């Protein structure tokens, strides 16, 4: 039996080609829709593929064979999902179609936790036909859609109309708060042409004050060093004509109750609009979760992730979003000011996850 494939922009065109080649007695084995061209499997042109033959007896056998294979493939997906339900993710998915298996590996290798991979596999199983389990473009579409839905809660820094926006950056030591403030200040001052002022309450580290002072001189933003809540509020009042006031706080260990209490007292009594918690993407997920839980007592409005350039993937971001109902605002991926920070863009995150 000779099985042939015919493609057209729509079903009518594909069927016309079948009839022209095989005649009116042609037997249709199956049809499917494909993406042709596009970028990374997206925005491609939709086409229709028809598989047909002339031999009815053999075509029936072929059809049954194909149906059996598709049924087995669907059953494999079901078995995998059952294993994932009981958190037994292991090499049992090795028998799945190669393309699907590689996409699973890609997510796991970037640190996406198994529960999220399970949810994505469920979406793939629900939205794709068994024939599409080996279709990389369609699998990418489902994964991209899932990631974008998870990243819908993003919130870049938005200024007020007639008064300054006051933002405090907080977090553990060594996550890059001071550099992040410099990047944000430079972006809003030099790129967005806004009037920015800086305040540092990080008086524990002389180097941090000197570093921020250097940045303030470079971008032409005034800087105030404060040692108390009263001085902080006075500095905020002093900069009432600015568009944006950024406050650098001292690094605090989430395990040091006294330090956390001091930070809480400072921010509770200051005229601050939003608190941005800065997190290092190279930190273990369990530690990040502990940090967020402790800093939530102080108050967290948004998250900033740093050091993307030092880690293998973005899995931590999806994992944190899955654990906490806190928007992600920015991602930083280097030391350059102000280039190496940007408001989180779901499409760019998807591109990083799915890049070859």
Give a verbal description of the structure.
- The chain is an alpha/beta fold.
- It folds into three domains: 1-54; 75-150, no CATH class; 165-354, Rossmann fold (3-Layer(aba) Sandwich).
- Helix 6 runs parallel beside helix 7 (206-219).
- The protein has helices spanning 11-22, 56-85, 98-109, 114-127, 136-150, 177-191, 206-219, 229-238, 257-268, 285-295, 315-323, 346-354, and strands at residues 4-8, 27-36, 45-53, 165-170, 196-200, 223-225, 244-248, 274-280, 302-306, 328-332, 341-343.
- Residues 39-43 have low confidence and may be disordered.
- The two termini are 38 Å apart.
- It has an eight-stranded mixed sheet, sandwiched between helices. A three-stranded antiparallel sheet has the order 1-3-2.
Search tags:
alpha/beta; Rossmann fold; 3 domains; 8-stranded mixed β-sheet; flagellum
């Amino acid at each position: 039996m000779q099985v042939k494939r015919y493609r057209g922009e729509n079903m009518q065109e594909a069927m016309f080609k079948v009839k022209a080649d095989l005649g009116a007695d042609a037997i249709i084995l199956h049809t499917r829709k494909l993406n042709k061209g596009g970028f990374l499997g997206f925005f491609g042109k939709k086409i229709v593929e028809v598989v047909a033959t002339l031999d009815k007896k053999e075509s029936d056998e072929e059809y049954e064979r194909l149906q059996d294979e598709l049924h087995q493939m669907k059953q494999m997906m079901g078995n995998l999902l059952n294993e994932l339900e009981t958190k037994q993710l292991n090499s049992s998915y090795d028998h799945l179609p190669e393309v699907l298996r590689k996409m699973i590996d890609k997510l796991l290798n970037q640190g996406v936790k198994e529960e999220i991979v399970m949810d994505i596999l469920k979406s793939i199983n629900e939205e794709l036909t068994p024939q599409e389990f080996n279709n990389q473009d369609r699998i990418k579409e489902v994964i991209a859609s899932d990631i974008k839905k998870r990243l819908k809660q993003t919130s870049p820094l938005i200024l007020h109309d007639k008064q300054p926006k006051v933002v405090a950056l907080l977090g553990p030591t060594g996550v890059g708060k001071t550099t992040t403030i410099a990047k944000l200040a430079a972006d809003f001052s030099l790129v967005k042409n806004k009037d920015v002022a800086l305040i540092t309450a990080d008086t524990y580290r002389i180097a941090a004050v000197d570093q921020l002072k250097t940045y303030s001189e470079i971008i032409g933003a005034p800087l105030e060093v404060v040692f108390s809540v009263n001085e902080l509020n006075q500095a905020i009042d002093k900069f009432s004509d600015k568009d944006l006031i950024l406050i650098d706080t001292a690094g605090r260990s989430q395990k040091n109750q006294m330090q956390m209490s001091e930070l809480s007292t400072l921010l509770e009594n200051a005229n601050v609009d939003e608190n941005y918690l800065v997190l290092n993407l190279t930190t273990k997920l369990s530690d990040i979760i502990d940090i967020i839980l402790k800093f939530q007592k102080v108050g967290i409005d948004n998250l900033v992730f740093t050091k993307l350039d030092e880690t293998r993937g973005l899995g931590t971001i999806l994992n944190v979003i899955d654990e906490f109902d806190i928007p992600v605002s920015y991602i930083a991926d280097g030391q350059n000011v102000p280039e190496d920070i940007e408001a989180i863009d779901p499409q760019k995150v998807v591109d990083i996850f799915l890049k070859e």
